[in-house]
Amino acid sequence: MNARTTPSFHPDQFILADYAAGSLHGAVALPLAVHLEYCEQCRAETHQLQEVGAQLFEGLDPVPVSDGALEQVLRCIDSADPSEAPPVRCAAPADPSLPRVLQTLIPAGLDALEWKRIGSLRSSRLRFGDPAREVALQHISAGGKVLEHGHRGAEITVVINGSFSDQDGCYRPGDFLVRGPDDVHRPVAAQDGDCLCLAVLEAPIRLEGWMGRLANPFLKIHPR
Ligand SMILES: [Zn+2]
Q1: Among 18, 58, 127, 169, which one is most buried in terms of CB atoms within 10 A?
Q2: In angstroms, what is the span from residue 207 Cα to ligand 1's centroid?
Q3: Of 108, 66, 74, which is closest to residue 90 (Cα–Cα)?
């Protein structure tokens, strides 16, 4: 991972505030955690928001609990069956080109994933446990063009390696993009290297053109 990259595109304050409060919905937290590994500015902002939250929390009046509450919690801990704990696995060598949060999610690395190809785009869905959103890595070959498409729901993308561009700009590692139903674009990877992104989709993309209109009814997202 290129730790020196300074992203140019950032999440808005509402997303950062939800993240700082621990209330960001499901898989949306993942691209944000990736962005924070690249972005000192948003890390500082998140830290400030967490401090504000902690101060607000301290100002709350304590809520009384029953007399035996502590003993009850301790009894629950004592009675937990250690055989139900998940087995400890030996850590596989992580891929240092990935952000740490993705190294944890993909311990065996990118080559161990199952990839599907559509033109110059390869896509691999990740198991994240969000029942409403698809989480996928997307890999575009150097100079590759993705089909022109719009969106039927929010699509959050964070660039991991390489870069791509569309009519609105050029996006480099750490850049955080949110696309909505009104956005139509055709991402093109830079000529000087492949581009790897993480994408979270709430709904299938919408392909443009007459062939796209034929294909659109068959496009679905696959939450895992
Ligand atoms: Zn940022």
Answers
A1: 18
A2: 30
A3: 108
Q: How far is the CA of 37 from the centre of ligand 1 (A)?
A: 9
Tens-digit pLDDT profile for residues 121-144: 899 999 888 888 999 999 999 999
Phi/psi of residue 161, nearest 5 degrees? -135, 155
Q: 41 alpha carbon to ligand 1 midpoint, in Å?
A: 6
How many CA atoms within 13 Å lie on the side-chain side of 30? 27
Give the pLDDT confidence score for residue 95 in this predicted structure. Answer: 81
Helices (H), 21-120: 29-38, 40-58, 69-79, 100-105
Looking at the chain, the whole-number percentage of residues with pLDDT higher than 70 is: 83
Q: Which domains does the chain have, with CATH numbers?
A: 108-218 (2.60.120.10)
Q: pLDDT over 90 for what percent of the chain?
A: 46
Q: For 33-83, write each residue's pLDDT tens digit.
A: 999 999 999 999 999 998 887 777 676 676 666 677 667 756 755 766 655
What is the whole-number distance in angstroms between the Cα of residue 110 and the centre of ligand 1?
A: 25
CB 155 within 8 A of CB 133: no
How many Å lie between the centroid of ligand 1 and the Cα of residue 23?
A: 19
> Ligand 1 center to residue 31 CA distance, Å?
11
